Amino acid sequence: MKNTEKLTLVYIKSLGKNKTSKEFDELLSYFNQDLEMDLKREIVSSIGRQTDLDKIFDFLNREAFNNHPMELVYQMYRTCLYKGKKDARFIELGEKIKNFYHNENINKMFSYYKYKQERKKRMNNRGAIKKPLLLIGDTEKTLTKIPEQSIQMIFTSPPYYNAKVYSDYYSYEKYLEKMKKVFLACYRVLEDGRFFIINISPVITKRPGREFESIRYPIHYDYHKILEESGFYFIDEIVWIKPEPSVPNRVGGYMQTRKPLSYKPNCVTESIMVYRKKCDFLLDKNINDYDNSYWRYEDEDIDTTNCWYIAPKADKNHPAVFPEELCRKVLKYYSFEKDVIMDPFAGSGTLGRVAKKMNRIPVMCEINEIYAELINKEEKNYYDISK
Question: Is residue 1's pLDDT more than 70?
Answer without folding.
Answer: no
